[in-house]
Amino acid sequence: MSFRTLISRLSSSSKEAHNLLLLLRRSSSPTLRSQSSRVTRHLYPKRTPTIGGEGRPFHWSVLPLAVAASAGFGVALDLRSDPAACDSGHEGSESGGRVGGKNSTELVVGGFHKEVPRELIEELKAVCETNITLDHEERYFHGKPQNSFHSAVNIPDVVVFPRSEDEVSKIVTSCNKHKIPIVPYGGATSIEGHTLAPQGGVCIDMTLMNKVKELHVEDMDVVVEPGIGWIELNEYLKPYGLFFPLDPGPGATIGGMCATRCSGSLAVRYGTMRDNVINLKAVLANGDVIKTGSRARKSAAGYDLARMMIGSEGTLGIITEVTLRLHKLPQHSVVAMCNFQTIKDAADVAIATMLSGIQVSRVELMDEVQIKAINIANGKNLPEVPTLMFEFIGTEAYSREQTLLVQKIVSEHKGSDFVFVEEPEAKKELWKIRKEALWACFAMQPDSEAMITDVCVPLSRLGECISRSKQLLDASPLVCTVLAHAGDGNFHTVILFDSKSEDQLREAERLNHFMVHAALEMEGTCTGEHGVGTGKMKYLEEELGIEALRTMKRIKVALDPNDIMNPGKLIPPHVCF
């Protein structure tokens, strides 16, 4: 291509100029850079160089291409956008046809599938030996979330099961060399499509890395591999009088809990995952291994890389080791339950309890539909009305004192049937009601799928948000239940629908959409603990703003320039820079 022709194309098409910039900005040829002033004079003879319209600076790294063309160098033009910097169209576009784009209505995640080269398969076999599979059933299992209605057009091409951090690093290095996407995989309990493989690629199942590496009883911390489950960890810690307080769904692993920044029913007292991780190690996209800090309980040394990794959903790196903060097992606990006539009365009691200064460890709310599901599933005869459950911990005297204070608050807010238990088996039976709530829902409609939404609002807006949502849910032809971690403003709705019915699927999505926007209008968030994945991407710009998303994108591109780390998740596809 001649110099004149190339200059003409750059001058007439800001889009091509922008794309060329993305492709060539790392050019380092001295010969190409030596004649840059010539190109500048042709493109912008009388003003400061800009590109793409007023206010956009012209990037000098575009210039080497023009110089190369004029100097006779062979230049192959590929005017497609760099997918790492712009996944679909221009920033601000509606992206309605893409999952995760603004106003997206698509539910099946699409993606460009790149064939995995035989050379990569052989490299992975050399690393993993027998811990690798190409079996279709195994790949399909890893490509379809176990507790989520989300799906993708592709499944992983290969599944590997590393046994060490070194193996993870070698796997990632090979994938990065071949530019093949990676999807980390843990307990498979996430529900927003985090483990989908829309572009195929390599699924890295971390469940063989499940060891407790170090326990420091006096420091009350533990170093673990990512594949260990929180339930198994607490069984290990129990003889030492310690426990790890986060309690998401059964089967969740520590690595996945970090990746999604999860919490659970105890977060009202102990905080979320970000509050209970002291440091971690992670493998970056180029295979480098980083450690984010020491075992000190606090540090002001450098950027807080641990908090950046927590909640990154595998898009920045693969977590290979976590140092967790532990707590003493409570000396005594009391579990209480009470009933209300309206969901708002129940929410108001949760708010009043928190404002009173009483340090509850759990405040869980269930609506009347959820209680009905529990009755059906467990053969119980509980009053089918909105219900609150509390847990109080401490010394025996302190726990009972807190229980009686809350009983008084309940009586002042139209509550009734306040009961509490202290015997271990009785407490276990009561909490079983809440822990198995999701499975109880399927007892009402065994052949249904569940769309589970998760929003969080400032505590003072919880009653209003749940009440507004309930009006819509109760009017819907679908069966919908409400559950809430009411002490921190976080509530879920389980929407049951027939996955074969397009109408029911759209109705479920309509209800989900309403609740998310209601929460955002109240200065809340589209997800309190489930994470973004593919399901919540489309709400992020409204919640965070485009500048915050651009910043996330820049971090992503800096750490993962080939976009191999769990692509198509967390950052909406319309975000460009």
TrEMBL record:
<dbReference type="GO" id="GO:0004458">
    <property type="term" value="F:D-lactate dehydrogenase (cytochrome) activity"/>
</dbReference>
<dbReference type="Pfam" id="PF02913">
    <property type="entry name" value="FAD-oxidase_C"/>
</dbReference>
<dbReference type="GO" id="GO:1903457">
    <property type="term" value="P:lactate catabolic process"/>
</dbReference>
<keyword id="KW-0809">Transit peptide</keyword>
<comment type="similarity">
    <text>Belongs to the FAD-binding oxidoreductase/transferase type 4 family.</text>
</comment>
<dbReference type="InterPro" id="IPR006094">
    <property type="entry name" value="Oxid_FAD_bind_N"/>
</dbReference>
<dbReference type="InterPro" id="IPR016166">
    <property type="entry name" value="FAD-bd_PCMH"/>
</dbReference>
<dbReference type="InterPro" id="IPR016164">
    <property type="entry name" value="FAD-linked_Oxase-like_C"/>
</dbReference>
<feature type="domain" description="FAD-binding PCMH-type">
    <location>
        <begin position="152"/>
        <end position="329"/>
    </location>
</feature>
<keyword id="KW-0285">Flavoprotein</keyword>
<dbReference type="InterPro" id="IPR016169">
    <property type="entry name" value="FAD-bd_PCMH_sub2"/>
</dbReference>
<dbReference type="InterPro" id="IPR004113">
    <property type="entry name" value="FAD-bd_oxidored_4_C"/>
</dbReference>
<dbReference type="GO" id="GO:0005739">
    <property type="term" value="C:mitochondrion"/>
</dbReference>
<dbReference type="InterPro" id="IPR036318">
    <property type="entry name" value="FAD-bd_PCMH-like_sf"/>
</dbReference>
<keyword id="KW-0496">Mitochondrion</keyword>
<keyword id="KW-0560">Oxidoreductase</keyword>
<dbReference type="InterPro" id="IPR016171">
    <property type="entry name" value="Vanillyl_alc_oxidase_C-sub2"/>
</dbReference>
<dbReference type="GO" id="GO:0071949">
    <property type="term" value="F:FAD binding"/>
</dbReference>
<protein>
    <recommendedName>
        <fullName>D-lactate dehydrogenase (cytochrome)</fullName>
        <ecNumber>1.1.2.4</ecNumber>
    </recommendedName>
</protein>
<dbReference type="GO" id="GO:0008720">
    <property type="term" value="F:D-lactate dehydrogenase (NAD+) activity"/>
</dbReference>
<dbReference type="Pfam" id="PF01565">
    <property type="entry name" value="FAD_binding_4"/>
</dbReference>
<keyword id="KW-0274">FAD</keyword>
